[in-house]
Amino acid sequence: MKKVVIIGGSGTVGKILYKGLSKIHDCYVLDNRIDMDNPHFIYVDATNYQQLLEKIPSQTDVIINLLRMETDNAIEDIEAFDKMTAVFFQASYYILQAANQLNISKVIFASSNHVTDYYEEDGDSLLNREINVKDYPYPKGLYGVLKLASEQLGFIYYLNSDMSIINIRIGSVPAKSEQKAIEENSRLEKTILHKRDLIELFSVAITAKERFGTYYGVSNNPGKPWDISNATVELGYQPE
Fold it and tell me: What are the beta bridge partners of residue 216?
């Protein structure tokens, strides 16, 4: 059993992971939206480095960075840019530095398929093959650019510390019923990461011996646009 801290764990992905991973590990949620009185749910502003140092539970083994905010535009105004940079880049650095300072051995970063969304349209790869992690990343918007930048932050910590860094480029995880979401958006037939597989992928990432890696998080859907073979081989991921 590992002590796992999910930062930004109050959203859709975080709730699924907390419920699934808590059956195996000692899990905590740190977020700036905490609506329950539970010692495993702790308020933190992840853009405040000192708060992170104080609120991350002692003896933590793994941090999962799920920080998020709403964004719809490829190019944002300056106010939105500043907010996005704080959440998707500055806080990523703070989390990595806090983990390093607190001797936490692994950080799992929830990246996004939008890091390479130039190669994908409506759930189809435009490369006449599945998109893989060796393809040069071309994001179509600021969100993907900042997710990519945070992946690279993880790489420099991998090079300059003893930490293990795992980046997972998550596909589609709907908040509503999966079947209803697919009926409303056919793209999800190819890009969905089913709840069971989401838990499976992060579970194997927590226990994997790999010190660094980047992986696509998608179920084994017919016609999926992303290659998951390295997750299968290196992490032991076994999706539906």
Answer: 169
Q: Is the pTM of this model over 0.90?
A: yes
Cα–Cα distance, 166 to 158 (Å, whole number) = 10
* CA–CA dist 43, 202 (Å, integer): 23
Q: How crowded is the C-beta side of 210, counted as CA atoms within 13 Å?
A: 22
Tell the residue number behind the tokens 């999800």, with chain if given: 188
Residues whose CB is less than 8 angstroms from the CB of residue 140 and which lie 6 or more positions away in sequence, other chains included: 74, 114, 117, 118
> From CA 89, how far away is CA 113, in angstroms rounded?
17
Please state, in angstroms and rounded to a whole number, the distance separating the CA atoms of residues 71 and 139. Answer: 14
What single DSSP character describes residue 226? B
CA-based angle 166:69:25, to the nearest 5? 40
CA gap 64, 8 in Å, rounded: 8
DSSP symbols for 118-169: GGEETTEESSSS-B-TTSPP--SSHHHHHHHHHHHHHHHHHHHSS-EEEEEE
pLDDT tens-digit readout, 109-160: 999 999 999 999 999 999 999 999 999 999 999 999 999 999 999 999 999 9
CB 173 within 8 A of CB 14: no
